Amino acid sequence: MASTHTAFQVTIANKAQTIACASDQTILQAAIAAGLDYPYACATGNCATCISKIDSGTVALLPRADAALREAQVKTGLTLACRAQPRSDVTITWLARTAG
Amino acid sequence: MANRADMATRRARACAALLAQVHVITDKEGITPSALHAIKLKLVALARRTELFALSDFTMPEAQGRTHPLLLEDNDGHGLYLTIGLPGKEAAPHDHGIWCINAGISGRERNRFYRRTDDGCTPQHATVTQVGEVVVEPGHGMAMADHDIHSTEVVGSEPSVQLALYGYALTRFPSVSWFHPAFSSVRATASRRHAT
Which end of chain B is more exposed for a tag (fewer CB within 10 A), N or C? Predict the structure, then answer.
């Protein structure tokens, strides 16, 4: 069923592709649904495989493990795509070296 | 009343005694379902000694989950941890490749167990079906064999605090396979077995 929440535009810089992502959806979920090969493993905020840099825009974070993303990292603009729900249009770059 | 240093000493002794008991069991039986059950009972008994694990002695998570090493063995030995998860903290279904046992100190964490249903022949594709559920809370625990698959979620309004005993220390963990029923996918994190 389609989400009734506000949808934002999320640009995946590694792929130069922009997708729609609802405010109750994680960026990873939207990327997978759009057929993008975004790097991930746990998808629940534990492993940091999907750690990414927010180039612009704001996100809200779902619960995660300290070891995956610390508050100090959040303050520098890092996020976990599997935990990040957009609160504006967002441009994001994944940091994994194994995909892309 | 014991001071903080005294309590840390008592905690360390209790954890070392637990590990010694674990070795008595595994040296005799190996890692069998009955051995894991026997170890679970001992871990639950240790978790009941709540005076040893006062939250004031441990840093709370700055996000939603934190693991504190209590006793780590060298080389390929076991790892014993105190884990704190805040309400909502979750982990997707995963197989961490090594046995583990949890026992509740306070709060509640729901563990769901799964069985893989695909043939494993398609890379990064997997399907799983739920086969059981256990809530780890005070007086209760759960035991998993090497390749059992489980998911976790802290439920209720208070932090889940548990003892967790793994066949290997977390820093020497094998590859963990994560299953995602919504995507019919499986992804693995790298093994730490040969990390320095």
Answer: C
- Measured between CB atoms, which of A29, A41, A63 is closest to B188? A41
Percentage of chain B exceeding pLDDT 70: 96
What was the ipTM of the complex prediction? 0.89
Distance of CA B139 to the CA centre of its chain: 16
What's the half-sphere exposure (Cβ side, CA atoms, 13 Å) at A87?
A: 8
Closest chain A residue to B124, measured at CA: A41
- Tell me the per-residue pLDDT of B12-68, one tens digit each, with 9 for 90 and over: 999 999 999 999 999 999 999 999 999 999 999 999 999 999 999 999 998 889 999
Q: Using alpha carbons only, how large is chain A's radius of gyration in Å? A: 12
Question: What is the DSSP code (8-state) at residue B60?
Answer: P
Contact check, Cβ <8 Å, A66/B90 = no
| Stated pTM of the model | 0.91
CB contact under 8 A, A63 and B90: yes
CB contact under 8 A, A71 and B63: yes
- Rounded distance between C-alpha atoms, residue B127 and residue B186, angstroms: 8
